């Protein structure tokens, strides 16, 4: 099971479960996570979704081996939802979404926090947006959501530097809401999730709908801009060299 699903006290916990790949998203995991969000949105017994990862990683982002295949393999078959479908499911998710960042978060493992209503992070976790190191554009409307969340300069550093940010820095920026010791992370996230889940779902959804309504069009526009630039840059020289270096390192490991 690349995604495990557990229900307790109206909280549905989704756990990314590709530990050997550091929970990197391949097409199958994008599809499974998008489907799980759509199902949770429609389930009247689910009030809150809590998203976390298994092992030492939250998510290492898009599986770069599969990104390389997308460029070089003419027979590559995209998933039913893929990355765009996951982002659409996140943008439309009508209930509280809580992220518990248990370990490293790369790419979508960081930018997904733009869609979180609450984010918790382990003291040992680290985050990075590696777009410039891969020679590509931002993703997941992060060019809009991160400045909204953490301010222009913090967002510029996150999106332009391809440098790691530790838990203390993520908390200072406002990228996450609370930092916890590793052994307390899930309990703390679940405790807050259950507080929310004890409230009427209709009221929770009304609060979220009114909070996201003013930014819905901006998120869609940012995604469209990013996707166009991503398509332009993916496979170009800087990106091709970065992916070749990555797959070469994996091959020699």
TrEMBL record:
User: Which keywords label this protein?
Assistant: Isomerase, Peroxisome
Extract the coiled-coil ranges from the record. Answer: none
Where are the bilayer-spanning segments? Answer: none
Instruction: Write out the annotated subcellular location.
Output: Peroxisome
Matches recorded under InterPro entries = ClpP/crotonase-like_dom_sf, ECH/Chromodomain_protein, Enoyl-CoA_hydra/iso
Organism domain of life: Bacteria
Write down what this protein is called: Enoyl-CoA hydratase/isomerase family protein
Q: Which organism is it from?
A: [Mycobacterium] nativiensis
């Amino acid at each position: 099971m690349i995604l495990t699903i557990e229900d307790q006290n109206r909280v549905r916990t989704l756990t990314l479960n590709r530990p050997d790949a550091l929970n990197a998203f391949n097409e199958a995991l994008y599809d499974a996570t998008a489907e799980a969000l759509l199902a949770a949105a429609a389930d009247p017994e689910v009030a809150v979704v809590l998203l976390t990862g298994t092992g030492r990683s939250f998510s290492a982002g898009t599986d770069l081996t599969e990104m390389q295949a997308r460029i070089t393999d003419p027979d590559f078959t995209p998933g039913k939802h893929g990355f765009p479908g996951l982002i659409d499911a996140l943008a439309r998710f009508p209930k509280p979404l809580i992220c518990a960042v248990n370990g490293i978060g790369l790419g979508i493992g960081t930018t997904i926090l733009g869609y979180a209503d609450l984010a918790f992070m382990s003291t040992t976790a680290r985050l990075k947006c590696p777009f410039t190191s891969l020679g590509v554009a931002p993703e997941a409307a992060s060019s809009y959501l991160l400045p909204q969340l953490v301010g222009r300069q913090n967002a510029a550093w996150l999106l332009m530097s391809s440098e790691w940010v530790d838990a203390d820095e993520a908390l200072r920026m406002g990228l996450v809401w609370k930092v916890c010791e590793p052994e307390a992370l899930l309990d703390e996230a679940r405790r807050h999730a259950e507080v929310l889940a004890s409230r009427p779902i209709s009221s929770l959804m009304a609060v979220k709908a009114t909070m996201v309504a003013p930014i819905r069009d901006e998120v869609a526009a940012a995604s469209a801009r990013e996707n166009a630039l991503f398509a332009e840059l993916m496979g170009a020289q800087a990106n091709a060299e970065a992916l070749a270096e990555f797959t070469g390192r994996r091959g020699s490991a």
